[in-house]
């Protein structure tokens, strides 16, 4: 990938600065800043309801931030629709992947962007080209499909995820937003997807990797944004944080501690669980802090 | 297959792909169940009914099948696109009534009535489609509503205009002859009379098949039926595709209506009720999934052919025609079971 503008310093592909989003009187997101560089993976971590999906929707162009600035290649932007974001090279791979299970892999790959050739007055699909391209693009991502004519529903979850990723890459994505790509996958399949995330990074793409699993985020991430209740509770580059610290932050040491006390009150079996939990808390090196807010 | 990339060229066939026999690959086609069924039924009638063996009988069966098969083509496309149209049966009659009454009442050239009827038919299709995509109410309910409305309109308007339940004979109106040539003529090949609807039927099936498999719109039809939200997410104009499909159904309803009009000169206003199920049965027997996203136009054609064979074969065999609907129901169940079985096997073999 070539940089077209001679920026004095390295301009991140995507930069959010102090973004807020409120729906009526509900503040879904407050003061979030985030950067994604080319060839970098920025992980967004947070539990359910932390504001991850609101953040994606802002970056993907579904929502506009209430306050704060959103820059792409250093230029402030406001997107009215996901299509505009897509035109700027920001592609989102949602959890449902936007594939049609009964259709062949290659038809899914080109769905909505069909390649056609002219045949007299009418235009027909260039099936041969689309088949070959699908096969080649997937091979470049390291997926060696047996048959691009098989219905995409017959692929495994990880493979389907990868088809969706390579489709976004092929159609000119510079920034990939991956919405919990490993959430519904087993250990092995998750590993496959993580491999493709690294592959996309190696190809010079910026990746925003949404997840609630620090064990998935840490090995591939360059930066980590931790969200909780709509606020950033930490923003680190990889050399500033270890995996255990990340896990501890994510798990919310204070909550774990509280849970431990709760379980201890719950009787014999629960007390045993509490003991295990306590050990884990100590292992992670969580310091006791008063629970903020709640 | 040549490969220009420097990476080790993937072989033309992947070595992990066991060679599926030609038969297994054929069986994976959606219309295979129907084809097998059609052959079996043909053989049965061929054995039990002597008149069935004659070429003229086959011509009659094909004609009968074509009158159902033309609309069934569009109904199959609509079903692949994930929707139903219960108003298709009476819409055929509506089209014929409009053309007939318009030309008769305004003493206009027959072709004016034909064009007015086309506009009305396309409007019906548009309204069906628009209501379905805008309200997100299942098409089953929306078109059930338009079915009853059209049924009432057909009878009430005809009685209002002509004072009768049928339209007046239009065979003396200018342009009747040329319109009849287009919609309802016949010619003789080797002593067997062939109705022109058969040719139209073949043409519509061929066009629909080509559109489905070789064009972008065809891709979109499978996609909106397979998963409308996913299609929308990748930029497929889901609503336009669905409205277009409803209009395709009403276009072929109009065509069949024109055939009815020019074949019989008058139109009974009560005609067509129940035919909507025949179209749907033909599509389903032909391998279309009720849930959308899977099926073929050729399958629907074979489905209509099975229907035509059964309807006339019972007569040729001298069986009591009262049993026809029982037979039809059994046929439908059998075809669906066979389809399901074949599809499962085909998918398992992938």
Low-confidence stretches of chain B: 1-11
What percent of residues of chain B are in strands?
under 5%
Q: What helical percentage do the residues of chain A reach? A: 25-40%
Rg of chain B (C-alpha, Å): 22 Å
Function (chain B): Part of the binding-protein-dependent transport system for D-xylose. Probably responsible for the translocation of the substrate across the membrane.
Subcellular location (chain B): Cell membrane
GO molecular function, one term (chain B): transmembrane transporter activity
Organism (chain B): Kribbella caucasensis
What do these coordinates show?
The complex is a heterodimer of chains A (294) and B (350). In chain A, 37% of the residues lie in helices and 24% in strands. Chain A has 294 residues and is an alpha/beta fold. In chain A, the strands form three sheets. Chain A has a six-stranded mixed sheet, sandwiched between helices. Chain A has a four-stranded antiparallel sheet with strand order 2-1-4-5, with helices on one face. Chain A is globular. Residues 1-8 and 288-294 of chain A have low confidence and may be disordered. Chain B is mainly α and 350 residues long. Chain B is built from 14 helices and two strands. Chain B has a two-stranded antiparallel sheet. In chain B, strand 1 (186-189) and strand 2 form a beta hairpin. The longest helix of chain B has 27 residues, at 238-264. Residues 1-11 of chain B have low confidence and may be disordered. Chains A and B meet through strand 8 and helix 4 of A and helix 9 and helix 10 of B.
